[in-house]
Specification:
Largest sheet: 7 strands, mixed
Number of helices: 1
Order of helices and strands: EEEEEEEEEHEE
Shape: globular
Structural class: mainly beta
Radius of gyration: 13 Å
Low-confidence stretches: none
Strand content: over 45%
């Protein structure tokens, strides 16, 4: 069974940093584009960042540009999210996801993703 497992979440003060990791078992994701989404209480799951399967491009939601960096890793840890200058509004459960597509228009839409992790909680205190 294919699994994506997020780690690295936690409680941090505003202005702090966290690095989220996504690990996998059962298959490799080198031929998949990878992304991070987040879901705050009472809100829908929303796009944070994506990186194309050929590593040629990345896309970020406007609210995290300049603060978050998505990067590809190795076969066992296919994607990371480095988060800096965290704000209370970044508080959410963060999910990694894998998509067979590579165009950034689709990658900003959660409906184009095939595999999802269970999420890791990120809480930013003011």
């Amino acid at each position: 069974q294919v699994q994506l497992v997020e780690s690295g979440g936690g409680l941090v003060q505003a202005g702090g940093s966290l690095r989220l990791s996504c690990s996998t078992s059962g298959r490799t994701f080198s031929m998949y584009s990878m992304a991070w989404f987040r879901q705050a209480p009472g809100k829908e799951r929303s796009f944070v960042a994506a990186i194309a399967r050929n590593n040629s491009s990345a896309r970020y939601t406007d609210s995290v540009k300049g603060r978050f960096t998505i990067s590809r890793g190795n076969a066992k840890n296919p994607v990371y999210l480095q988060m800096s200058s965290l704000k209370p509004e970044d508080t959410a459960v963060y999910y990694c996801a894998a998509s067979p597509y590579e165009d950034m228009t689709r990658l900003a839409n959660k409906n184009w993703y095939t595999y999802w992790g269970q999420g890791t909680q990120v809480t930013v205190s003011s």
